[in-house]
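Why does residue order matter? Because the sequence determines the fold. Keep that principle in mind as you read this record.
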Amino acid sequence: MKIENKIEYWLDIAEYDMETARHMQARGRYLYTVFLCQQALEKILKSLHIKKFGKESSYSHNLVYLQSNLELDLSESQRKLLAVLTAFYIEGRYPSYKKKLSSLVDKAQSATLLNKTEKLYQCLKSKLIS
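Structure:
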């Protein structure tokens, strides 16, 4: 597959995840909102990795790690967002944690995380397109 096609592939599914995160928020599925925020950022970071290095990144879901080699100019709050979303992703994958995590994520918190994710997503997407 050509590099451009790989970038487009990851971007397409990142877009799908962002859209689905918005739907989950609207339907009150707050843990899944946060989970999909992590997924969208993971996929756009992987697109940026392909653009920069011409190859796929490692099989990591850790957003902090994925952005570390990209030399992105992220703010402290953006780096904190990556860490928070990574924690929700890792723990949210295990059934024993889902109930606990669901009780920790309310409408306001997931809306805040979604809003921050959308802003960072657009910032990263602009780097991908430029």
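The domain at 3-129 is CATH 1.20.120.330 (Four Helix Bundle (Hemerythrin (Met), subunit A)).
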